[in-house]
Design a protein that fits this description.
The protein has 128 residues and is of the alpha+beta class. The chain is built from 4 helices and 3 strands. The chain has a 3-stranded antiparallel beta sheet. The longest helix has 18 residues.
């Protein structure tokens, strides 16, 4: 039973940590990081960080987005080319800014086919 209480906490943890970060803009943290395969966590984690960095470089964050969140679904090709991105849920204004950043981001190629399969259709959560 205690593990059922811990899992929701892990999903909320990125939002709590970003709220405690003060005025420093933190890179958006995808919600699905906790669902990654334990077999290849290092490779997946590195690629996830590369995607986050690419989006963060294009995001012009504003204090008006503080405390906002958004979930965006991305579809990418193995070479990193964005096929589509769509807002799933969240604050409309913040989601539009995130979607714009995702559209401009230069997502790097996946390191291998297995990693691409993990991220080719990914739902990414962002919090400011």
């Amino acid at each position: 039973m205690p593990s059922q209480r811990i899992k929701p906490l892990l999903l909320v943890l990125p939002f709590l940590l970003s709220a405690c970060a003060g005025d420093k803009q933190q890179p958006p943290l995808p919600e699905d990081i906790w669902g990654m395969s334990q077999a290849k966590p290092d490779k997946n984690a590195r690629y996830l960080l590369q995607i986050r960095q690419a989006v963060t470089e294009q995001f012009s964050g504003s204090q008006s987005y503080r405390g906002k969140s958004c979930t965006v679904r991305i579809f990418i090709q193995p070479d990193g080319m964005l096929l589509s991105a769509a807002i799933e849920k969240g604050d409309p204004e913040y989601c539009q800014a995130v979607l714009s950043a995702v559209s401009r981001a230069k997502i790097p190629p996946a390191p291998d086919k297995e990693t691409w399969h993990t991220f080719r259709n990914a739902s990414l959560g962002f919090a400011n």
